[in-house]
Write a structure and sequence with these properties.
By secondary structure, the protein is of the alpha/beta class. It contains eight helices and five strands; from the N terminus they run H-H-H-H-H-H-E-E-H-E-H-E-E.
């Protein structure tokens, strides 16, 4: 048994954990693989301290005469939010796992402003100013997303695949199974993705059996030209690619390579 916990982004100390929102504000990204800037959580941390001081003061009831959110509801939301942050940063501190908390950040800022501002007008002005500031300062990470187009994938099948073809997919973990719905009446077997299948056991044995018993056309499918490792791996499953008969077609993000393949005697 192995521990699969990803501890790359965990804070070294408690002070480090408390500093994450302010590191995000100045463009540091201790919780993410990619750089970004986010002002929401540093703003919320400051507002939370100010709101706590206001709640503790004796004349709070006289100063904050109009509340949009009932105190019990606001307290519950804030406790839930900060407890969620504490659990997240103690267990993971991976920013991609932070999305549910991020979605609640704007509401939490409003709850704090609601307890600090005196009137509906002042609440609206303060919240609007903070919103503009956060939008101006923040810069989301770039995960390589492409612009929206006529369709999601933009697959250009510049050739006519034969029906009932079995495609044997190999590669170094690249996500390209989205091509499958665009090649109807075919069958697909992925041999090498995040994990390599073993041809003598489990799913690998089933994949090898599917290849052996297939009676139609047989082709390889990759998003790069076949490498020597790919060729050797295919042969373990009884497949050899005829690289004299390959086609290339593209999507908006990948270039696919498909070669006619033959079954080897086993």
């Amino acid at each position: 048994m192995a521990n699969r916990r990803d501890a790359r982004f965990l804070p070294a100390t408690s002070w480090d954990a408390l500093s994450y929102p302010f590191q995000w504000l100045i463009g540091r990204s201790p919780s993410s693989e990619l750089p970004f800037r986010d002002a929401r959580f540093s703003v919320l941390a400051i507002l939370f301290v100010l709101a706590a001081v206001s709640l503790a003061s004796r004349n709070f009831a006289l100063r904050a005469t109009v509340l949009t959110v009932r105190p019990a509801v606001g307290l519950f939301l804030l406790l839930f939010f900060f407890m969620s942050y504490a659990v997240w940063i103690a267990l993971f501190a991976i920013h991609r796992y932070f999305v549910p908390i991020e979605l609640a950040a704007g509401l939490m800022i409003f709850v704090c402003v609601d307890h600090l501002a005196h009137s509906y007008r002042s609440k609206t002005i303060v919240f609007s100013i903070l919103t503009v500031f956060i939008m101006a300062v923040s810069d989301p990470p770039n995960w390589g997303r492409i612009p929206y187009g006529r369709d999601w994938y933009g697959i250009d099948l510049n050739w006519r695949p034969k029906p009932a073809t079995l495609y044997v997919m190999v590669g170094n973990g690249e996500p390209f199974s989205y091509v499958i719905p665009f090649m109807p009446e075919s069958r697909f077997v992925r041999l090498y993705g995040n994990l390599k299948l073993d041809p003598i056991r489990g799913l690998g044995a089933r994949a090898k059996s599917a290849i052996k018993t297939h009676n139609g056309a047989l082709r390889t499918l990759t998003v790069t030209p076949l490498t020597e490792n790919d060729r050797q791996y295919l042969e373990r499953f009884g497949v050899r690619a005829d690289e004299r008969e390959c086609v290339v077609f593209a999507s908006r993000v990948d270039q696919f390579h498909s070669c006619r393949a033959i079954k080897l005697p086993l």
